[in-house]
Amino acid sequence: MDIQYSIGYAMALLVGLVIGLAGGGGSILTVPIFVYAFGISPVLSTTYSLFVVGVTSLVGSISHLWQKHVDLRVSAAFALPSFVSVYLSRRFLLPALPDPLVQFETFTLSKPNAILYFFVVVMVLAARAMIRSDRPEQGEAADGRPRYGNLALDGLAVGLLTGTIGAGGGFLIVPMLVLLAGLPIHRAVATSVLIIAVNSFVGFLGDIQHTQLNWNFLLPFTGLSIVGIFLGMYFARFVAPEKLKKGFGWFVLMVAGYVILKEVL
Predict the structure, then answer these.
(1) Neighbours of 250 (CB within 10 A)
(2) Any stretches that span the bilayer, and where are they (predicted)?
(3) CA neighbours closer than 13 Å in the CB half-sphere of residue 32
(4) Which residues 6+ apart lie within 8 Å of 215 measured at CB?
């Protein structure tokens, strides 16, 4: 195993660690890891990402459910529309996109490159959210009553994002659960992990009917990510996740810059 593969597997630990600490964010790295450390195509990388993020988050959510940190009613309001969106985008939208996606005279934008460019935009937005590291106030739900209609609409949007790029969207889910459902930050993180788990599995189910997978690679990578989420949940008892999220945000920003350089130069 060469150094590039070793770094890739080490990054699997980081993916789980961040999900365990902050309820999301680590999954934003899975696609770049698969593409640049293991040489996997961007489209297949999004499928692998959904599986890794789904299994890792499911393991973490079991612990949160056991401790009764998850708000199941809010989860259902956000997640059910999101499930529909993520499944349809994986099952029908992504396969239907033409390749090349855009072709005009000498300019050609391939489908894999378009996915990577969109991913970079999402990485920058995620990094910005983590670097700011502000805890949102209760917003619209300051009166203690969740805004279920708005949660459902946000669920549709996050499902589309998850289905398109294979990331869980936790950096979007956690603030929305605080602002629109009035959840305390620790319950928002726990609820986010459950939503990400099921969202990712639904998206993955939309893929397995037309995708051949390398389980000999995927399962060890997922196992390391699971170890990472246990480490994250352990360290979350002693370390403020916001401090680590800020440093991780800068790291994600650097990775986004690396992707841009690789694709442009």
Answers:
(1) 12
(2) 12-37, 43-62, 74-94, 114-131, 151-179, 185-205, 217-236
(3) 27
(4) none
| 108 vs 128: CA distance, rounded Å | 30
Residue 17: predicted pLDDT: 84
**b/e for 120-152, b at 16 or more Cβ within 10 A?**
bebbeebbebbbebeeeeeeebeeeebbeebbb
Q: What is the pLDDT of residues 58-81, one digit of tens each?
A: 888 888 888 888 989 999 999 899
Torsion of CA 39, 200, 87, 92, to 10 degrees: 0
Closest Cα to residue 9, out of 1, 215, 45? 1
Alpha-carbon distance 52 to 48, whole Å? 6
| pLDDT tens-digit map of 165-181 | 777 677 778 878 888 88
Q: What is the pLDDT of residues 150-160, one digit of tens each?
A: 889 988 988 88
